[in-house]
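Per reviewer request, we include the raw input and output of the structure prediction for the construct analysed in the revised manuscript.
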Amino acid sequence: MREFMLTLHLRIHDSVTALHRAHAVGDDDLASAQAGEIQGLVEIAARHGIDIDAGYADLTLAG
C-alpha cells in the first residue's frame, strides 16, 4: 500500500505542476484536463482512505 500511496502523491504533484504550467502559458484546455486529472486522483485517494493533506482539492479550481 505504501508504494500505491507514493505513486498517487507523485501523480498528483506532477498534475499540479502541469496545471500551473498550463495556466502560465494560457492553455485553458490543458489546464482543464489537468484539473480533471487532479480531481480524479483526489477521488481515488478518498476511496482508498489515503490522507493527501486535503491540499489538492482546491487546486483544481485555482487559476
